[in-house]
Amino acid sequence: MITRRLALAVALAALAGCSKPAPKTAAPQTLTFSIVSTEGAQTQLQEWGPFLKDMEAATGMKVKPFFGSNYSALIEALRFKQADLGWFTNQSGLEAVRRAGGEVFARTTHPTGPDGYQGVIIVRKGSGITLDRILKCDRTLDFGMGDAKSTSGTLAPMTYLFGPRGLDPATCFKTVRSANAEANLYAVGSGVLPAATNNTRSIDRLGAIDTPLARKTLASLEVIWRSPTIPEDPMIWRADLDPATKAKVAKFIFSYGVGDTPEAKRQRAILERIQTGPFKHADNSHLLPVREMEATGQLVAAKGKHDAAAIAKAQAALTQIKTEAAAAHP
Fold it and tell me: Are residues 77 and 105 in the same domain?
């Protein structure tokens, strides 16, 4: 009997041990911050360095930048937990939420003017290339576009310019080169490319650099098309990031550059270097406009192919997006 009781006690103790909750994962000591790859990594490191240093001081954590060669690299870094948070474009941010467990928690603001920016098509001034020439679609011009997940460099011109006309850049131009905004600015400015997509933020950034090459490039550019206004960029962190870490990051982000103190003015000057004003609170509803752009483009493509099923699917998506928008902004 004693032996049976002892065995039962051992078994119950073992079962109790199995039912104990797993120990909590320790909060990370290092944060990896993804920076959208619209310009050269070295240029961005120089501009972002002071901001990341201030984040380190405020959070008490080591903050490392992560530069990807394209937007897909940034999304994959978040997905595989090689990055914790960062600055994304709207379209790449949407992919980060969909595929990488991302969550919008903040958004950028225009440092000196109204929120929002435009996608553009640029040509070299004096080249004689007009929008009608671009839309002629005769495979005689080389053309530059953004990364496949670029909002202003790819999604906007496809949604608002090429798609509604049933045009595919791959069959319209002699060659199509995919590059970041900075590379396309200099390529068109130097005459390497006749025309390319870009955005007003990158053009503003070129003016702020104020080097001889930047001034020469800016003076040589002409905008021949502008998209409707695109929302400011989202800041995204991993949804499963440690709550205490989220709290530290949020405290820093939403107080940075706010107020009239000398320190706040210093911080706003740093923010202007990375082309934003103080950050604002946001959530995944920030991505509704880019979802609408995406669905609109799909509807245009479906109508061009006379695909009834795809048309119905795109229209249903647009209806759902409008319903969510009405709920988010009653």
Answer: yes
Instruction: Please name which of 212, 231, 232 lies closest in space to residue 289, comparing C-alpha atoms.
Output: 231
Overall domain count for the chain: 3
Q: What is the pTM of this model?
A: 0.79
For range 11-21, the mean pLDDT: 42
Phi-psi bin for 124: left (phi > 0), alpha (psi -120 to 50), beta? beta
What is the gyration radius of the CA atoms in the chain, in angstroms?
24
**Structural domain for 187, as ranges:** 119-226
The answer as to whether 1 is a domain residue is no
**Per DSSP, which regions of 91-153 are E strands?**
102-107, 119-124, 142-145
User: The dihedral of CA 275, 277, 281, 287: what is its sign?
Assistant: negative
Cα torsion through 88, 94, 99, 103, rounded to 10? 70
Cα 319 to the center of its chain, rounded Å: 25
Q: Is residue 14 part of a domain?
A: no
φ, ψ of residue 63 to 5 degrees: the values are -120, 120
Residue 256 is predicted with a pLDDT of 98
Whole-Å CA distances, 330 to 13, 46, 270: 55, 42, 35
Is-contact 269 261, C-beta < 8 A? no
Q: 238 and 257, same structural domain?
A: yes
**CB–CB of 118/228 below 8 Å?**
yes
Both 317 and 254 in a single domain?
no
In terms of domains, do 123 and 147 share one? Answer: yes
Please write the tens of the pLDDT for every residue from 188-236: 999 999 999 999 989 988 988 889 999 999 999 999 999 999 999 999 9
